[in-house]
Each structure stands twice: as C-alpha cells, then as structure tokens.
Amino acid sequence: MKTFNKTFTQQEPIPEAAIARAVEVMRGGRLHRYNTLEGEVSETAQLESEFAAYIGAPYALACASGGYALHIALRSAGLTPGGPVLCNSFTLSPVPGAIHNAGGRPVLVEIGEDLKIDVDDLGRKAAESGARFLLLSHMRGHIADMDAVLEVCRIHGLILIEDCAHTLGARWKGGMSGTFGTVACFSSQTYKHMNSGEGGFLTTTSPEIMARAVIHSGSYMLYGRHLAVPDEAVFQEVRLVTPNLSGRMDNLRAAILREQLRLLDDRCRQWNLLYGCLEVELRKAPGLHMPIRPQHEQFVGSSIQFSLPGFGEDDMHRFIERCGKRGVEVKWFGEAEPRGFTSRYDSWRYIDGLVELPKTRKILSTLCDMRVPLTFNETDCALIGEIIGECVQAILKTGQIPVSVKNGGRS
To answer: Which of 82, 178, 223, 300 could be cross-linked to 219 through a Cys-Cys bond (beta carbons 3.0 to 4.6 Å apart)?
Structure first.
C-alpha cells in the first residue's frame, strides 16, 4: 500500500535575496517603519508602493495581519457599532472575527454548490438586514461571479470589501482580485501566497478611506513617510478624529516580502501546475465530486477542495483517518467541532442572531480541503490523488453509501 511522507505544512524557503535584505535591515537596527534617516524611504513604504502597483490600486497599506486589515477596512469605510455586515457563511473564523472586532454584526449568507456566495440569498439578506457592507471572502480561492455580486451591491447600495487572503494573484475576467470593491484586504500569513509569518495589506481607491486606515494603523502623524497614500490635504481632518489602533507592518517583514512579490506570478503558475496534477487524479475517483471552475475565473490553486456526496459523519471520519494513516492530510469543513484552521459557521456562537443555514450545512457536511504546498512536485501530487481515490473507494466498499453515489460521483 502506497504512502506519502512529506509534510503538508512545510513552506518553501524564503528567497536568498530576501534573507540578505532582512539581515541588512537587522544590522541597521531600524525595524520600525518610521525609524528612517533624512531622505530615506523605509522598506515598508517601498513594499506598499510595489504592492499597489502589482494590484493596480492607487493606495496600499501594509498591516500586522490580514485580520487587522479587514478590521480597519470596515472601520475606515464607515461601519458603526452594531451595524450589520453581510459575509459568506463559508469562510475562516478571522472574517466574522474582524466584523465583530470592528463593532459590527455578521449576517451570514448561504453558499452554492460551487462554494461561492449565493447571490440570490445575498439579495434577500441585503434587503432584510439593511446592511451597508458586504465583506466578500474569496474563500479558498473561489472567486464569485463578480458581475452578479456587483449588481446586487448596486441595487442595495452595498459597499464591497473583498477578502483576498486566498486570491492574491488571481483574476476574474482579467481583472485582478481585489479591484472590484471599494476596499480589498490580503494576507501574508505563512500559509498564504507570500510568507512573512504574519502580515497583511489593505488597498483602496478611496483617498478618505485610505487616510483613515493609515491613521488607524498607527502613523503617529508620520503619514508623509508613506508612498502609496493620498495627498496631505486628505489627512488634515481625518488625523484629528481617527483613533490609533496600532497594527503596522515592520521593516523586517517588509524586506522578506518584497522579493516574494517579484516572484509571485511564477509561484502562482507553479501552484496551478500542481493543482492540475491533483485534479486529474481526483476526477478519476467515482464518488468524489469537485466544484466546477468557471472559465472567467483565473484562480491560484494553492489549495484544493472536493466533496463526497452521500457520505455520513462516520464515513467522513473514517475517510479522514484512512488518508491520515497514509500520510495525506485532508481537512473536513463539515466537522461539528472546530479543528485546526477549519470551523463551521455554527461554531461562531458570539454572533448575535446566528441562524441555521441549511444549504451551507449540507454542502459543508462532505466538503474536504487540502493545502498544495510548493514544496511538493508533480509526482507527489499524482501520488496524493491516487491515495485519496483509494481511500474513497475503501469507504464506498465498506460503508452504507447509495449505489447512485458510488456510480455517479464523478463531475
């Protein structure tokens, strides 16, 4: 019986040029982004300028984390205490957490079989809640039909904030992820597309929102040392009425990220190559369903998702256990108890007015998730796909799975 013996949590090394620059920053001792010499531009300011250019946004702010970026995006866009914020129910816990941290109330929206926000339910919830904001999570790299989402936003007057933690470098109809809404937030946490351990970015087209975000981040009135920010005049009133919520990125993390940004497109292509190898193997397995990726979605395959229709809770536990014994680390989003990075919406019990979402619950009940590290190669991915297929078949042979599922799970 074949097994896989590489770890799913091993990251590729930080590029040597980034390590050298980080060492240079440490030797200089000026890690704080505003600790600069006369006429010097900090690593963080340079990174912000380069990141803004990559995304195609006029303004960018480097933050301590992606969750912090979401938090101040909401505050800077005008969320008031207790205000409802629409967000998709399939996301990671920092998203509703950021809404709560900003003083808002998450209003969870159903998802569809494609794992993206249900646009019809979005329209209903927008009308019922009176929400002014949609925090749209491009969860696990699945970009919704942005034309349809933007139309709902137009009809209901919603301010769109994109959570692009899993879509840095991805596109919809050629448009860069993060350029459809008023604000976008990104992450550079270890398991994202760039790795600084922890970190994030906020981009926006609004000078007023950007000015407030910079002050929120803790500029100590040193916003003039940024590059990708609006003119001084925009800050004049904002600086006096916006609280300092200190969450800046430092120069050490910025130095680590600048070289990675230059390599990002190459890495995205490599992720998609590995994703393709996995997809070929997984689609061979009867009883396993993979979501269809629409032609307009230019995704980054840094993770892969599939579902096992007809599997019950015991079947899912046995499947996950079988994969684990053969060295393949599969996560299950439908598990009742939060585990690791996965959690189901009903575990966020701090949400006021938390409602049952039958469509989402059914989809998550058999939804599996797996990271695709760049430390793997094509042979690794073919083996992983083969092992998963064999584990599915083992459960189908021993479990009480309907024959129709066994024979018709392919899509």
So the answer is: 223
Q: pLDDT per residue over 229-288, tens digit each?
A: 999 999 999 999 999 999 999 999 999 999 999 999 999 999 999 999 999 999 999 999
Beta strands across the sheet bearing 133-137: 59-63, 200-204, 183-187, 159-163, 133-137, 84-88, 105-109
Same domain for 282 and 241 = no
Alpha helices per DSSP H over 304-377: 313-325, 358-364
CA distance 170 to 158: 23
Q: What is the pLDDT of residue 339?
A: 86
Evaluate whether residue 7 is within a structural domain.
no
- Helix, strand or coil for residue 200? strand
Contact 272, 27 (CB under 8 A): no
Residues 107 and 249 placed together within one structural domain of the fold: yes
Mean pLDDT of 332-360: 92
* HSE value, Cβ hemisphere, 13 Å, CA-based, for 258: 22
Residue 11: inside a domain: no
**Please, what is the Cα angle at 11 between 51 and 196, to 5 degrees?**
35
* Alpha-carbon distances of 206 from 38, 57, 187, 230, rounded to whole Å: 29, 10, 20, 9
Give the position of tokens 């899993």: 166
Say yes or no: 187 and 288 in one domain: no
Cβ within 8 Å of residue 288, ≥6 positions away: 282, 306, 307, 308, 388, 389, 392, 409, 410
Give the other-Cβ count within 10 Å of 338's Cβ: 12
Which of 234, 258, 282 is at the close of a domain? 258
Looking at this protein, which amino acid is placed at residue 134? L
Kindly give the interhelix angle for 119-129 and 146-156, rounded to the nearest 10 degrees.
20
The answer to whether the CB of 138 falls within 8 A of the CB of 130 is no
CA–CA dist 26, 46 (Å, integer): 17
Distance of CA 375 to the CA centre of its chain: 20
- For the beta sheet containing 175-176, the strands, ordered from the edge strand earlier in sequence to the opposite edge, are 175-176, 171-172, 297-298
Q: At which of 223, 240, 258 does a domain end?
A: 258
Please say whether the beta carbons of 25 and 252 come within 8 A. yes
DSSP structural state of residue 398: H
Residue 152: which domain range?
16-258
pTM > 0.90: yes or no: yes
CA atoms within 13 A on the CB side of 112: 15
